[in-house]
Amino acid sequence: MKHINCFDFSGLYEDYAHRREDLPGDGLLYHRIDCTDIRGCGRYCDPAAREEIIRRIREAVSFDGDGAGGRSVSLIDSGNYHFMSRLLTSRLQRPYQMVLYDHHPDMRASAFADAPDDPESGLLSCGGWVRDALLFDPYLKGVVMRGVDAALCEEERSALEERLLSALWTEPDASLPVYLSVDKDVLGDTEVVTNWDQGDMTLDALCADIRRLVSSHEILGADICGAPEVRAGRGALVRNRDCDAAILRVIFEGL
Question: 20, 55, 61, 53: which is closest to 35 by C-alpha?
Fold first, then answer.
């Protein structure tokens, strides 16, 4: 059974359960995890929210013996919640690499960290979770970024600790399994509407690149964010759902 976990912080996924025909293939188990009651987790995730989200991840996401959710894909709402990738991968218990599709590099140091060497002490942010993972996840060996804005990447690389730069790779390592994270703001706004500034990748190009990746690497799990605000209107929400379905179809080809 292949799982789609929908972590719903905004009410976005309330109708997904009624539209299973839009989701790919057979043998899927859809599960909405209601997170609309959790406070302290919009863009920044405070320690109390982090603890509660991790509790819900433990209840919702099935992992095999080595901690890999090999048949688990999560939808994680808008880009405001991309820090969820950090919390989802924190349960992996084997060496892996991350391939990230995102218009933003998400490597900023948190302005609100209480103790630089304590991953639990400060606020985890949607704009700094990659740096947090590189600093504190012993199993994450490297991150490959696709579609990232070059100027933003250079700006954030210049402020990154020297010891972390070697973990920013240009190509995936053929010997390591992959955790895949997709922020739909990597796409142009003619493809989908998000609540952040966007890149110019086409959905066809994104799906083709993911297809090459899943055909050549073991996939430990994946997540997709980059949804619009619920108030964006029906047209934007339908486009978002269709975009999710297209990406899910390709990911599940490799699972």
Answer: 53
Residue 61: per-residue pLDDT? 75
Query: Which two tokens mark 223?
Result: 């997540």
Crossing angle for the helix pair 234-253 and 203-216, nearest 10 degrees? 20
CA angle, residues 94, 4, 173, in degrees to nearest 5: 35
C-alpha count within 13 angstroms, C-beta hemisphere, residue 183: 32
> In 66-94, which positions are buried (b, 16+ CB within 10 angstroms) versus exposed (e)?
ebbbebbbbbbbbbbbbbbbbbbbbbbee
List beta partners, residue 224: 75, 182
Residue 119 CA neighbour count, 13 Å, CB half: 17
Sign (positive/negative) of CA torsion 171, 178, 28, 227?
A: negative
pLDDT digits (tens, 9 = 90+) for 213-224: 999 999 999 999
Architecture of domain 2-253: 3-Layer(aba) Sandwich (3.40)
Question: What totals of helices (H) and strands (E) does the chain contain, helices first?
Answer: 7, 10
In this prediction, residue 68 has a pLDDT band, given cuts at 50, 70 and 90, of very low
Residue 140 contacts residue 89 (beta carbons within 8 Å)? yes
| % pLDDT > 70, the chain | 85
Q: How far apart are CA 249 and CA 163, in angstroms?
A: 37
